[in-house]
Design goal:
Oligomer: single chain
Number of strands: 0
Shape: flat
Largest sheet: none
Order of helices and strands: HHHH
Radius of gyration: 24 Å
Biased composition (Basic and acidic residues): 139-149
Region (Disordered): 127-163
């Protein structure tokens, strides 16, 4: 990676940290979240939803740029140790970065599933679980433990087509 590209990675990381600080300041000013506990304004669900979206975007940007920065550091280390006896150190760092990336992805999947669960719990669209999307990890374990409680059956007369 060129020095210019490395500078861009670090610049992006610094910008994402600054953006995260701006979102935190926005929370504090909009919702009065200070140590004294005094609120300045009335907060609606729309305000909370928008603040949540802004915070999630800031965290995603920060984690992405942090991952890019760590890859830049790892690439610099690889360049320094290429051809030397320290190749195992680069492999160890690769495994650590892979583990961090996997844990970020797992946590995001968990947060996504929690959001879906909260949405369906709040809206109670249907008494059956069949309308709710099921992630693959949940699909394998759920039916082994509990038999499905609601089944949808579709019967058509002979010669009748579904429209």
């Amino acid at each position: 990676m060129e020095d210019g590209a490395e500078a861009d990675v670090w610049s992006s990381f610094e910008k994402s940290v600054a953006y995260m600080k701006e979102v935190a300041a926005l929370y504090e000013s909009a919702f009065g979240c200070r140590a004294d506990g005094a609120r300045k304004t009335v907060v609606t669900k729309a305000h909370l939803d928008e603040a949540h979206n802004q915070a999630q975007q800031a965290l995603e940007l920060l984690s992405s740029n942090l991952l890019n920065a760590s890859m830049t550091v790892m690439n610099a280390i690889e360049r320094q140790v290429r051809g030397s006896n320290y190749e195992s150190e680069a492999d160890r760092l690769k495994r650590k970065v892979s583990a961090i990336r996997e844990s970020i992805q797992d946590r995001q999947a968990e947060l996504d599933q929690q959001a879906v669960d909260k949405f369906y719990a709040a809206h109670k669209a249907s008494p059956s679980m069949s309308s709710r999307p099921v992630i693959s990890a949940e699909r394998t374990g759920r039916f082994e433990k509990d038999p499905p409680q609601h089944k949808l059956r579709l019967s058509l007369a002979p010669g009748q087509c579904m429209q």
